[in-house]
Amino acid sequence: MKRNLWIMYAIALLQGMVFYGPIATLYRQAHGLTIFQITLIESISLSLLILLEIPWGIIADKIGCRHTIIFCSALYLISKIIFWKADGFAGFLVERIMLSVVESGFSGVDSTILYLSCGQKNSQKVFGVYHSMSMAGLLFAAGVYAMVVQDHYPLAGFLTVISYGGAAFLSLFLTDVRIHSVKKTDTEPFRVTIKKAMKNRSLLLFLIAAALLSETHQTITVFLNQLQYQKCGLSGSSIGLLFVAATLLGLLGFCSSSVTGRLGICSSLLLFCSMAAASCLTLAATRLAFPSAAAILILRFSNTLFQPLLTEIQNRQIRTDNRATALSVNSMLLNSVAIGTNLVFGALAGRKHA
């Protein structure tokens, strides 16, 4: 099972190599999209993702995690090819629709493979390393962008296609994992799994809070940070350096288990949320370069520590063989919240940026 961990780490590394990452918003703008169109496409994508979450969870539990990862990795590759060739709203919308299929398929399946492959021991650390590998890939891509790609946007898209092709190839070598009950009883019906997940009120409230934190981080550190940096008068090279710094902070996911071990789960959650809230308040109150950069870096750091803990908490709550289905219900709720935040953030950012 250790081979699964190394392969999943490698897949995360390669799929983290998004060579247009430093100019994700500018790339789309250069191909005819407005800020509101970007966030609108995100919300459409999330709506489809929500519709596919539970069906994909059921399919994954039936066909196995390995086959699900293989199919989704191949589709991921195709979506990046479409992104590379896209020009205008329709092209990027098609790419995001395909991405919705991929992400709903991956949802819960990757963490299931990791959770079961590590024997459920040190799982939070494994999740942290997995997230860190993704950020390591992004850091490598950022370095290549700064030294080689620069303003050659099509090259950034092409290199991303190559890295995702490598990830799709590696997925073929995964070994399937399944969890079985000790007693030879009938498998729990999927409708029962879904009903149980929807009735866990404490977990549902936690997931809503987690979605607000995660989507705020996603929108600010991926899309809106570049607009804030421009308003602060930062140069392209400075923006690139800050992107590298933010990516380096993303490598610290493995520290999440240590922080949680020392502070406890409740204190850790309070700390991570407080850091994020302070960062957002700072960004809302200033246009100065240093506090803006510091706030965005702190926001990235808090999310880096939070995500492995979020994954760990979700996996601990599952008491069924239909693990992928249960995790898909959680993802459905997370993405439902994300639709609203994307539209609100996009409309407000477009108004302020106009």
From TrEMBL:
<feature type="transmembrane region" description="Helical">
    <location>
        <begin position="64"/>
        <end position="84"/>
    </location>
</feature>
<dbReference type="InterPro" id="IPR011701">
    <property type="entry name" value="MFS"/>
</dbReference>
<protein>
    <submittedName>
        <fullName>MFS transporter</fullName>
    </submittedName>
</protein>
<feature type="transmembrane region" description="Helical">
    <location>
        <begin position="203"/>
        <end position="224"/>
    </location>
</feature>
<feature type="transmembrane region" description="Helical">
    <location>
        <begin position="96"/>
        <end position="116"/>
    </location>
</feature>
<feature type="transmembrane region" description="Helical">
    <location>
        <begin position="128"/>
        <end position="149"/>
    </location>
</feature>
<feature type="transmembrane region" description="Helical">
    <location>
        <begin position="33"/>
        <end position="52"/>
    </location>
</feature>
<dbReference type="GO" id="GO:0005886">
    <property type="term" value="C:plasma membrane"/>
</dbReference>
<feature type="transmembrane region" description="Helical">
    <location>
        <begin position="236"/>
        <end position="256"/>
    </location>
</feature>
<feature type="transmembrane region" description="Helical">
    <location>
        <begin position="290"/>
        <end position="311"/>
    </location>
</feature>
<dbReference type="InterPro" id="IPR053160">
    <property type="entry name" value="MFS_DHA3_Transporter"/>
</dbReference>
<feature type="transmembrane region" description="Helical">
    <location>
        <begin position="332"/>
        <end position="350"/>
    </location>
</feature>
<keyword id="KW-0472">Membrane</keyword>
<feature type="transmembrane region" description="Helical">
    <location>
        <begin position="7"/>
        <end position="27"/>
    </location>
</feature>
<dbReference type="GO" id="GO:0022857">
    <property type="term" value="F:transmembrane transporter activity"/>
</dbReference>
<feature type="transmembrane region" description="Helical">
    <location>
        <begin position="155"/>
        <end position="174"/>
    </location>
</feature>
<dbReference type="Pfam" id="PF07690">
    <property type="entry name" value="MFS_1"/>
</dbReference>
<keyword id="KW-1133">Transmembrane helix</keyword>
<feature type="transmembrane region" description="Helical">
    <location>
        <begin position="263"/>
        <end position="284"/>
    </location>
</feature>
<dbReference type="InterPro" id="IPR036259">
    <property type="entry name" value="MFS_trans_sf"/>
</dbReference>
<keyword id="KW-0812">Transmembrane</keyword>
